[in-house]
Predict the structure.
Amino acid sequence: MGQKGRFALLVQDPNKPLDSLKVVLKDQLVETWSAETCEEVARLLDQTQPELIITETMLPDGSWVDIVSMAEKASAPTNVIVVGSHPDSALYISAMEGGAFDFILPPFETEALRHVLRVAVDNVRYRREAQSSLAVA
């Protein structure tokens, strides 16, 4: 990471913001916007085309499953990282099998989080380049 133009959409409860995650994203030059609901994500997704959507597991009008579904239908590839509130192996397996790029837990270990972010953004960039190559062909 470390290049300009990185963008993540954070889907979170405003009463318990993911401030420690925002610090690492800012350090990695990832601009962030926040959303609180699936409805907001639906409005913002194609408009903003984030490389990443980082979402809590439960939202007022849905869950991470809805976010992954929207990301899969988006016009530009995006990766979803699910943020759990506590260790839950069943949720981890469900998220990974359900299409999430990764599942992370606070407290966030900076180096590990940087690695996840770098791999997720590199993956999206590769998929977007492949998509634009197919569109040209």
In short: Strands lie at 6-11, 30-35, 52-56, 58-59, 62-63, 79-83, 102-104. DSSP finds five helices and seven strands in the chain.
